[in-house]
Amino acid sequence: MHVVIAPDCFTGTLTATQAAEAMAAGWHDTAPLDALTLLPLSDGGPGFLDVLTRALEGDTVALTVSDPLGREVPAAILFVGAQGERTAYIESAQAAGLHLLGADERNPAFTSTWGVGELLRAALAEKPKRIVVGLGGSGTNDGGAGLLAALGAGPPEHLARGGRALASAPDDALSELLAVREELAGVDLVIATDVENPLLGFKGASAVFGPQKGATPEVAQELESALGRFTEIVARTLPEPLDLLTGAPRRLDREPGAGAAGGLGYALYLLGGRRVSGVELVLDAVGFRDVVRGCDLVVTGEGKFDWQSLQGKVASGVAVAALEAGLPSVVLAGQVMVGRRETMGLGISGTYAVAETAEQVDAAMLDPVGTLRSRAARVARTWSPAR
Question: Per-residue pLDDT tens for 76-119?
Fold first, then answer.
């Protein structure tokens, strides 16, 4: 039996590569005769650059940027292709990731995307034809204002102090935004994201993702108001874009993915970016459809398999691609929060949780490799005839 093991990272505990290796070890414990192909994946969030570096031939440039609180952290940019046709890949989580913050530091009212702007600036210096920015796993909610400030669109004192500060930003806070857009005019700016949420509203960045980043209900409401103020400043600065087909005005704050990474998607739209599915981009880059051709089963997974997982994340993307190839797929996750009815439409043949009780969750956090390996061994008993 040939099994392809293609998980995302288990956020906060295991990288995608570590998760794939733990699953493979557990599967081998039960079915040592099965052929296993490990294919770690990402949807644009943490691990995006590692996955692409393994899959693509290119040059990695290391640099130091600012984290969400302005401290120096290591980061990298992957350049692929010949001069004049180069593509630069950036992982925003390297500069704005939630994992860069301690538990007592997580408050999106004060965190900034300035470091992502530093990454973008460094990529631009190499004059690539295309820049792909992976979004996901951020600890920020500033609408990408920090990124814009780092590129020179406006004063850092108004734009780079976190989402809350945008509420008091002056009307001319983005006075150089047009100049920054002009600088990027010849670059194909690609927004690779796993979510389609708009910037504002009940499905927006503050309401949906703010609490995951440490925002209380009161702070989430403040951030919603501050981002609303930010869109007013944009409207005073930037001519309203028009839909190329209908000629109707486009509200960039309502575009799919504008709310990704705390509104970082919105800032990239302001710079002329276009959105693609992060997981589809990665699946194409690693040649997923070629890899699974002729295999018997696809195993994917992530830390928490919930309703968000059904909307463009790795597990759902893998399941759909496996279904297109006529293959069964199963999900092995730290926790499973959705039922059989919700997963059947994606073609998922089974979901398996490492932890189902509070005690099991604690045990899994203490030994993520061991508990994931053990669960994979039990799943192999169900699916492998060669055990």
Answer: 999 999 888 999 999 999 999 999 999 999 999 999 999 999 99
> Which has the closest alpha carbon to 303: 269, 345, 339, 332?
332
How far lies 345's CA from each of 340, 341, 342, in Å? 9, 8, 7
Of 74, 210, 46, 237, give the one whose Cα is nearest residue 140.
210
Opening angle at CA 55, ends 52 and 58, nearest 5: 75
Domains within the chain, CATH numbers bracketed: 2-40+298-383 (3.40.50.10350), 48-279 (3.90.1510.10)
Closest residue by Cα to residue 26 from 46, 49, 3, 50: 3
Q: Comparing C-alpha atoms, which of 256, 142, 145, 146 is closest to residue 206?
A: 142
Residue-wise pLDDT for 282-334, tens only, equals 999 999 999 998 899 999 999 888 877 777 789 889 999 999 999 999 999 98
What stretches of the chain adopt beta strand conformation (E)?
A: 2-5, 35-38, 59-66, 72-80, 87-91, 130-134, 188-193, 274-277, 297-300, 304-305, 329-333, 335-336, 348-353
